[in-house]
Amino acid sequence: MIRNKFRCLSFTLMVAATSGAHAATVDLTEFMAFGARGGTVDLQTNLATLALPNFNGDLSEAPFVIINSQSLSDVSYFDYNMAGTGAELSLYLSDGSIFSLQNPAGEPVRYQFATPFSGSLNFQFGAGDSSSDSVATITNLTLLTPVAAVPEPENLAMLLAGLGVMGAVARRRPRRRVGM
């Protein structure tokens, strides 16, 4: 009975020591600006700035910028912010999904994927009928990458103590001889 309890304990410790995840931020300079009319794109390591000049006129001539990524794995979330009236930031995913990103209060917003997304991301920033300059920023594009967890010293000490107790119990138990 005691031996079975120790087996379960040591198995549980080994399973717990091998799981985990690590967050890594995507270098936004890896994105490409592949469409622009009247707008500008500034791609830095952890900040993409999409800017549009003020615009009052024919919407078919409205300024826009588009940036896209190569294929990414396990995208967890990103933060974005917009300033200016009438501009729209949209997210196009390689699976065909389209999301209109909103921040009515003008505060930074975190977009969290329900499950980690793998594929390419396209951000399109376009001007509506805006009488002011518009700016959108994208930061902290974060991937979740699984990593093997390193067991803590306390866990290893508990595992070794359990193995020692199992060895002591096995040594003290009388050996049975099998009769022939």
Descriptors for this entry?
180 residues, alpha+beta, five-stranded antiparallel sheet, 11 strands, rod-shaped, disordered N terminus
Largest sheet: 6 strands, antiparallel
Could you list the spans in which at least 5 consecutive residues all have pLDDT below 50? 1-19
Helix content: 10-25%
CATH architecture of the largest domain: Sandwich
How large a portion of the residues is in β-strands, by DSSP E? 35-45%
What's the overall average pLDDT, rounded? 77
Rg, Cα atoms, Å: 28 Å
The CATH homology group name of the largest domain: Galactose-binding domain-like
Between the first and last Cα atoms, what is the distance in angstroms? 28 Å
Shape: rod-shaped
CATH level 1 name of the largest domain: Mainly Beta
Question: Given the helix and strand composition, which structural class is it?
Answer: alpha+beta
Number of domains: 2
How many H/I helices? Answer: 2
Number of strands: 11
Q: What is the third-level CATH name, the topology of the largest domain?
A: Jelly Rolls
Order of helices and strands: HEEEEEEEEEEEH
Could you explain the architecture of this structure?
This protein has 180 residues and is α+β, with helices and mostly antiparallel strands. It has 2 domains: 37 residues, no CATH class; 126 residues, Jelly Rolls (Sandwich). Helix content is 19%, strand content 44%. The chain is built from 2 helices and 11 strands, in the order H-E-E-E-E-E-E-E-E-E-E-E-H. The strands form 2 sheets. Strands 1, 3, 4, 6, 9 and 11 form a 6-stranded antiparallel sheet that branches. Strand 3 and strand 4 form a beta hairpin. Helix 1 runs antiparallel to helix 2. The radius of gyration is 28 Å and the shape is rod-shaped. The N terminus is likely disordered.
